[in-house]
Membrane-bound lytic murein transglycosylase B
Amino acid sequence: MSRRVMGCGLGVVLAIIMVISLVGWALSFLDISSPTRQLQPVPDNVPPAGAAEVPLIDVHAPGRTADKLTFWAEPLAEETGIPAAAVRAYGNAELIARDAWPTCNLRWNTLAGIGWVESRHGTYSGEYFNRSRINEEGFAEPKIIGIPLDGSPGFAAIPDTDGGLLDGDTEWDRAVGPMQFIPESWKRYGRDANGDGVADPHQIDDAALGAAHLLCVNGGDLATPEGWTRAIYSYNRSQEYLIDVRDAAGSYALNQPAR
């Protein structure tokens, strides 16, 4: 009898530990800021204010130029909660865009706003027990692949355009990577930013530059309300999406996490 009681007690303790662990795991997805930090109100400006200036580097140098921004990105990552690899990628993309499309006036925190909404900067895969992360080479692991765009309620019907090369689906297209490009859009806007000669939407540097390309081509001058709005709508024509990106970008301009 005593053995049975001890076994029941142990089972209760283990159950409590399991509940506490599950609650802690669930809270990790809520991006709750430190309770000791008072976040500033985020203005509703369009376009949002620019965040910390990106130091000039040679974006035409061989190799992964984003790595040259490590010294700049690390303290920003600490303050904003954005993975340092993603901060480097967004800053690198801003500098390349400034060189390639000088009238675009894209700021890195707009890219960060999109990255936050699309995939929490390459960390949300949709699999609760297999959350993604950006590895040392800048690739999201595991790959971030959206649901099939098969015309289900609320979703477009986009038959496969890449033979499953990017999304593993030979019937329907799916959004892929940290910036959630559909394969057809990646064909038009994808760019190589990490110097390996391949434009890969699963690699954060490439994905950020592809997003910059899309925004600049479709938005025009993102320093104007009209241009910024047009650019964000070219990514996702939703008022709610625009507000979410604006608020995240505005929060990063204040050097604090998005909410």
Notes: Residues 48-254 form one domain. The two ends are 53 Å apart (CA to CA). Helices lie at 2-27, 70-80, 84-100, 108-119, 183-189, 204-219, 225-235, 239-253.
